[in-house]
């Protein structure tokens, strides 16, 4: 049996990054124990974003498992968004910067497979956005509110020149700015994750830019400036529900104008045709 490689941890105040201290694992599902050790050392700060993990052979020796077990663990960690693979002479597996890629991809896949309805995504997004609005009303600085207004003005200018933005990444910046105004980094990550899921769904159906969105956002911001969190939430809730209707109706709409009416909440969902007896 090979002995575990025990590396000295960084001294307090030292600029050097501590090397991971992995121990042999004894379990029928060794790759899970490997994943647990990596997660723990990311959580306690031993492994830092951007830090390269030891090579596959070295990891196999430290964990005292087969190289196939190491590969399985690395694939699992990569799918979870905790590590990323890089190619080239200085390639390998690196600890990924904190983000929401893993959960975003997981939910996005479940929506695509029909395991999670868009209604559930919308409900979660409404509740989370309203929490963000309430916190932002309490904590936002004038500069942060001005940044939200500048984003609205940017898109309004595009519509005036007939160039309504079709870049869904730019369109969801509005929600991120509200989240940032909460001064809560976890809120920013969660809002980003849900916004990205909806952005992907919209991108698949190639939505038409809708000028109504400018009026909605200006109304939300006006209520936020006045500290009227519940009124801002009510406006946002209606908008996100209409957006959900748009997403659900798009496959059966025959033209963009019909889809626009759905998004604006001006038409009812079509009733299912009665089955012939």
**How many β-strands, per DSSP?**
2
Instruction: Count the DSSP helices.
Output: 12
Helical fraction: 55-70%
Rg, Cα atoms, Å = 24 Å
Please provide a written account of the structure.
This protein has 2 domains: 30-95, Arc Repressor Mutant, subunit A (Orthogonal Bundle), CATH 1.10.10.10; 101-263, Up-down Bundle (Four Helix Bundle (Hemerythrin (Met), subunit A)), CATH 1.20.120.530. The protein is built from 12 helices and 2 strands, in the order αααββααααααααα. The protein has helices spanning 30-43, 56-63, 67-79, 101-112, 118-139, 142-160, 168-171, 173-180, 185-205, 212-225, 229-249, 256-263; strands spanning 83-86, 92-95. The longest helix has 22 residues, at 118-139. It is elongated. The N and C termini lie far apart (73 Å).
Write a brief structural summary.
The chain is mainly α and 277 residues long. It has helices spanning 30-43, 56-63, 67-79, 101-112, 118-139, 142-160, 168-171, 173-180, 185-205, 212-225, 229-249, 256-263; strands at 83-86, 92-95.
What keyword list fits this structure?
two-stranded antiparallel ribbon, mainly alpha, 277 residues, Arc Repressor Mutant, subunit A, 2 domains, Four Helix Bundle (Hemerythrin (Met), subunit A)
């Amino acid at each position: 049996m090979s002995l575990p490689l025990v590396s000295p941890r960084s001294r307090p105040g030292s600029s050097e990054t501590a090397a991971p201290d992995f121990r042999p694992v004894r379990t029928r599902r060794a790759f899970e124990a490997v994943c647990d050790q990596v997660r723990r050392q990311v959580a306690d700060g031993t492994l830092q974003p951007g830090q390269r993990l030891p090579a596959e052979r070295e990891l196999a020796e430290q964990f005292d498992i087969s190289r196939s077990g190491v590969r399985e663990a690395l694939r699992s960690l990569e799918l979870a968004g905790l590590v990323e693979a890089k190619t080239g002479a200085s390639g390998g597996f690196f600890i990924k910067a904190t983000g929401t890629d893993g959960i975003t991809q997981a939910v996005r896949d479940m929506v695509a497979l029909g395991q999670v309805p868009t209604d559930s995504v919308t409900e979660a997004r409404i509740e989370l956005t309203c929490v963000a609005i309430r916190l932002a009303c309490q904590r936002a600085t004038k500069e942060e509110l001005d940044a939200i207004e500048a984003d609205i003005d940017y898109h309004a200018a595009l519509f005036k020149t007939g160039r309504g933005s079709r870049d869904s990444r730019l369109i969801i910046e509005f929600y991120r700015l509200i989240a940032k105004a909460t001064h809560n980094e976890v809120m920013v990550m969660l809002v980003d994750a849900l916004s990205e899921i909806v952005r992907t769904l919209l991108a698949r159906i190639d939505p038409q830019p809708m000028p109504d969105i400018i009026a909605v956002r200006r109304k939300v911001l006006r209520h936020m400036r006045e500290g009227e969190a519940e009124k801002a939430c009510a406006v946002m809730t209606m908008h996100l529900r209409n957006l959900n209707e748009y997403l659900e109706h798009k496959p059966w709409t025959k033209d963009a104008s019909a889809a626009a009416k759905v998004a604006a909440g001006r038409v009812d969902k079509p009733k299912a045709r009665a089955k012939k007896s």
